[in-house]
Amino acid sequence: MIDVHSHAYAKSEADVDRWVRTMDAVGIERTVVLTGATGPKFDELVALYGRHGERFELWCGIDYTGFDRPGFGPAAVTELERCVRVGAMGVGELSDKGGGLSRNAGGMHLDDPRMDLILEKCAELELPVNIHVGEDRWMYEPMDEHNDGLMNAFKWRIPETPGVLRHDEVIATLDRAVRRHPRTTFIACHFANCCHDLSILGRMLDDYPNLFADISARFGETSPIPRSMAKFYEKYQERLLYGTDMGFGAEMYRITFRILETEDEHFYAQDLFNYHWPLHGFGLKDAVLKRVYGDNARRVLKSSRNR
After folding, report:
1. I need a labelling partner for 33 at 20 to 30 A (CA). Which of 2, 6, 41, 153 fits?
2. H or E, element range at 96
3. How many Cβ atoms sit within 10 Å of the Cβ of residue 225?
């Protein structure tokens, strides 16, 4: 079992050791840590996790320095290549919730021509790119009694301000980038934040064989609709990757297993999810679980291909 989406929650070697013990307890073979880091910060994280190199795979970020000046691109590629030499096995989590790729690249989106050189280099280096586009639709809607996801949307709301793309617009930047770079493998994390209408993600998966999606941190959003989700997993069983992005507690992992594997109905895990919606198990078939839990990741991850 491979967790393809986590973050650098560990702050010390003791944290990493505890994480490994938790992974052993719940059957996680390997975890992809999406550091989003470059430079000395990435090097520090490589050193921190290095004692358990077989259990953790670290991905780096993109250095956006100079994105707003002529000639952006070659220096970012040079730093990307350096991170690979240090140990990076992928790129991510890149993030654009509508205002651009991080605070350091405001206004530049994934489909911006300035990103072309970098994304093509990722293809050349066989580095998958994990991209967080937008937030779920509720975060863009008015924060009132008509917002079905208000209990979580209020915290993660995206203000309607000039220059910030709305939900459909930022999802479209992913669509265009994946189409423009067919040699690059993209992983749209959190179901591409299309939980309100997964047919949007489904259409992109149908159109682009180089696109995958991870299921991390969207269990609360999807488990209220178990029959639809079971059908979605069945249809796209070769394109979905298990991920968590909710820390590294054993009970967290077990709740995700319960949702994916069982047909349990109307239970809650409010310490993990901010919604008041009840959770329901999908009861996925063993063959589907096998692909989602590990087989798909082994096809995508550079570390697996190089072993």
Report:
1. 153
2. strand 91-96
3. 16
- SS3 state of residue 249: coil
Write down the residue that tokens 């109905």 correspond to. 265
Least confident stretch, 20-34, 95-109, 275-289: 95-109
- Count each helix (H run) and each strand (E run) in the chain, helices first: 13, 8
Query: Pseudo-torsion of CA 273, 275, 279, 284, nearest 10°?
Result: -70
Residue 165: helix, strand or coil by DSSP?
A: coil
Domains in the chain, start-ordered, CATH in brackets?
2-262+284-305 (3.20.20.140)
Residue 37 has which token pair?
């880091």
Give Rg (Cα) of the chain: 19
- Show the tokens assigned to 303: 């570390």
Task: Give CA–CA dist 163/169, Å, rounded.
Answer: 11
> What is residue 298's predicted lDDT score, i.e. its pLDDT?
96
pTM: 0.95
Tell me the H-state helices in the chain. 13-26, 39-49, 74-86, 116-124, 150-156, 167-180, 199-207, 219-222, 226-235, 250-261, 286-290, 296-300, 302-305
Confidence of residue 302 (pLDDT cuts 50, 70, 90): confident
Q: Express the helix, strand and coil content of the chain in percent, nearest 5 each.
A: 45, 15, 40
CB-based contact 241:211 (threshold 8 Å): no
